[in-house]
């Protein structure tokens, strides 16, 4: 059996074919959930954000021009929703005060099998220390496997800015993880 392209599914969904939309949602729900979970570190908030993103994608499906891949377009919407999430937070609550992410099953986060439970936990904790603009670049590069050009397009910044944010984030993660390792 062959897999229909995202563009074909979008066209069918726009024509009212419910199964095409369901296929798109099923295709990307794990990736989108894992993305939002890494961004907000709270499973309930991540589920809410994921649902919000899918609703926004559905409402704006007609505006998808196909200039870039559907996945990139959808994650750009997810990026903006995550930014909105942080803006709605109480001004007195810093990102460091966000609750730590609960232990996940390997089903919820496929990347988690790459690390031991303790290493994954340390990495997730370290990711939460990054500013949102650096966290997004790390997420897109290493977890969504985007190229520097794709990240620049999604975030509306230059490739050099993407690289600068990534290398700065990696330095911070390295420092944070080394501190945890010494303790």
Automatic annotation (TrEMBL):
One of its GO terms (molecular function) is sigma factor activity. Residues 122-173 form the RNA polymerase sigma factor 70 region 4 type domain. Keywords: Sigma factor, Transcription, Transcription regulation. InterPro entries: RNA_pol_sigma-70-like, RNA_pol_sigma-70_dom, RNA_pol_sigma70_r2, RNA_pol_sigma70_r4_t2, RNA_pol_sigma_r2, RNA_pol_sigma_r3/r4-like, WH-like_DNA-bd_sf. Gene3D superfamilies: 1.10.1740.10, Winged helix-like DNA-binding domain superfamily/Winged helix DNA-binding domain. The keyword Protein biosynthesis does not apply. The keyword Transcription applies. It comes from the Bacteria. Residues 24-90 form the RNA polymerase sigma-70 region domain. Pfam families: Sigma70_r2, Sigma70_r4_2. GO terms for biological process: DNA-templated transcription initiation. Belongs to the sigma-70 factor family. ECF subfamily. This is Sigma-70 family RNA polymerase sigma factor.
